[in-house]
TrEMBL record, chains A, B:
It comes from Streptomyces smaragdinus. SUPFAM superfamilies: lambda repressor-like DNA-binding domains, Periplasmic binding protein-like I. This is Catabolite control protein A. The keyword DNA-binding applies. Residues 1-27 are annotated as: Disordered. The gene is ccpA_1. It comes from the Bacteria. Residues 26-80 form the HTH lacI-type domain. Pfam families: LacI (PF00356), Peripla_BP_3 (PF13377). GO terms for molecular function: DNA-binding transcription factor activity; transcription cis-regulatory region binding. InterPro entries: HTH_LacI (IPR000843), LacI/GalR-like_sensor (IPR046335), Lambda_DNA-bd_dom_sf (IPR010982), Peripla_BP_I (IPR028082). The lineage of its organism: Bacteria, Bacillati, Actinomycetota, Actinomycetes, Kitasatosporales. Residues 10-19 have a biased composition (Basic and acidic residues).
Length: 354, 354
DNA sequence: CTGAAAGCGCTTACAG
DNA sequence: CTGAAAGCGCTTACAG
């Protein structure tokens, strides 16, 4: 016998479509009708609220199972005003540096029963803004952002309206907001000082685009460490720009082949480092190298690659924890947290000058 | 002068909180009141619908800007019945194999103006189910799943209710559903045949847990290739289990130190391969090795690591495209797509027996 | 060209 | 212990 109270068994016609946008799924009203109780009673059972007799509860549960009811959280969200979701906007989900960061944010979100909506900005400020505002329109409870833009004034109304926001890896531009960063400056200084201590005087730096905060900080650390060692920096020794292998390869060639050839290189991030290693392997002329960011298998190359390691999972975890503290009602002034970096010597950074 | 029509300027009291769950954000009603027009007219302007005079539109836009209105998509979603979001459930966002897959899914979703909700199952069937059902409660339009579970009957009511679902990397268990897979069997066979062609007779296989589809298929490929070469497989030559380095290291030690020591190894996935490479480097006894899955820097190790490469981005892209085709109304029977793998010789797989 | 009414599927506030 | 009414902020269907 067909149960006509079950919407799945109703005859569907086109006009019905608009009335039931969720593909004929049963609602609490359907469950209530079948169980012969009020809507609110179903709500109580579904949400585990007290004040329902065991017998009533049993009838409601039977009805839920029979109809295959699952609460529509879209409706719940609309009424409650909290979506229990947060947005994470980063440059590229697939980047080995951001992937563990993302996973760490997810774990913290999960502990707070919150879903994670992920988006890649592809290092494009417009795409970042578009994504962030789409997330705001969805009324995510909060945002964790690795910014591509350097102007976040577009976010001010959203933040004022209550969307908690924490920036990671790079600070916000033009607005005051929480930020969790690595000590890029200190890490870069330590790298260069290490090369100097191993006898190098002509040290090059190939970094990411100078408009990116981390790249600028690492360049600053490089310059300061050189100055502290009493070493002048030849203009040909620094090259900021995209991490495209062609660009990096050309910069390396110029530094090593010029009139003042460098004997050591400080690579500004993991992608630069990998390109440099690949190039050096092709050349067969090993030279001293320290890379910013650790990467898998760095220890298995020969020589092993000395790196300045960040802790991407800790960055993500700290950012997410800061976010949930804000969501729990902490209203202090925005603060900047800086995580330390660690030099891991593996051989390439300890080579003497040729 | 303070504009009392702007909700942000209203005096807030506790009772007001419950009436305005979205932190006093202006709604279309507020915009309409300030502009002196009807609610529907605001809706028309916000959604770019025709039939509004330029003058009216101007007044509405002024009102939107003045109040800082942004449409609440939670409400829109509830009414429309499509959330324009899809869920992606995988083992671990941070895994170098899944990260590009995830990014590819995101790109396809973006092209369809759809947001991506990401979740890691941590290879735990219960956690997978919990996550997937939470996404269903949010009424995502579709799901892309790399399953940890081998029984997906829990998804049947959701799929029947219209949530499109595509499985990637591994097929669904106990239900009929679209799946996009790699040719694990063929890839494994090719790897073993390659080792045989280079003179090996005693070849080991260290794989992931046998209950995982990809691991089982690769084992089957290994066995068939050995049989085709007329080689019997000694029981100590296969070891299925977790990818924990301790387990893999022990398995390797047993295979190489036993009474029938292997001269070559086929490693069942990227994590096994990395552990084996690390172990081999520590031993200083190189041996022939082919790994399933390519990985960054595999070409820079010495010898370079010969691999069976999959295309994780293509897996993700194909799965997402299949999903959106279903969402567009394609109603054929579920189908299984298998992507080919590619053997990339780099040296380690071409070493002769010791 | 414009808008009032009804409704998406829940929760809230309240009454019995 | 139980439920009817109102409302979250939009869109739909319809009337003027």
């Amino acid at each position: 016998m067909i149960d006509r109270t079950c919407p799945a068994n109703r005859k569907t016609d086109v006009s019905d479509q608009s009335r039931r946008p969720y593909g004929n799924r049963p609602t609490m009203k359907d469950v209530a009708a079948r169980a012969g109780v009020g809507l609110k009673t179903v709500s109580r059972v579904v949400n585990g609220e007290p004040g329902v007799t065991p017998d009533t509860e049993r009838r409601v549960r039977e009805s839920i199972t029979a109809l295959g009811f699952r609460r529509n959280d879209s409706a719940r969200i609309l009424r409650k005003g909290r979506t229990s979701s947060i947005g994470l906007v980063l440059e590229d989900l697939a980047d080995p540096f951001y992937a563990p960061l993302s996973r760490a944010v997810e774990e913290v979100a999960r502990a707070h029963e919150t879903l994670l909506i992920n988006g890649s900005s592809a290092e494009d400020p417009e795409r970042e803004e578009e994504l962030v505002l789409a997330l705001c329109a969805r009324r995510v409870d909060g945002l964790v952002i690795i910014p591509a833009s350097d102007d976040h004034r577009y976010l001010e109304p959203e933040m004022a309206a209550g969307i908690a926001t924490v920036f990671v890896d790079r600070p916000a531009g033009q607005i005051d907001a929480d930020a969790v960063l690595s000590d890029n400056y200190g890490g870069a200084r330590a790298a260069v000082a290490h090369l100097v201590a191993h006898g190098h005087r002509r040290i090059g730096f190939i970094g990411d685009q100078a408009r990116i905060h981390t790249a600028a900080e690492r360049l600053r650390g490089y310059r300061d460490a050189m100055a502290e060692a009493g070493l002048a920096v030849h203009p040909s020794w620094t090259a900021m720009g995209s991490t495209d292998p062609g660009r990096v390869g050309a910069a390396l060639g110029a530094m090593r082949g010029g009139p003042e050839p460098v004997t050591a290189l400080f690579a500004g991030n993991n992608r630069v480092t990998v390109t440099v290693v690949r190039r050096a392997a092709a050349d067969g002329r090993p030279f001293a190298l320290i890379g910013f960011d650790d990467f898998e298998l760095a220890d298995l190359l020969s020589p092993g690659i000395t790196v300045i390691a960040q802790d991407p999972a800790a960055l993500g975890r700290t950012a997410a924890q800061t976010l949930f503290r804000r969501l729990a009602g902490q209203h202090e002034v925005p603060k900047r947290v800086e995580l330390t970096t660690r030099l891991i010597p593996r051989g390439s950074g300890e080579l003497p000058p040729e």
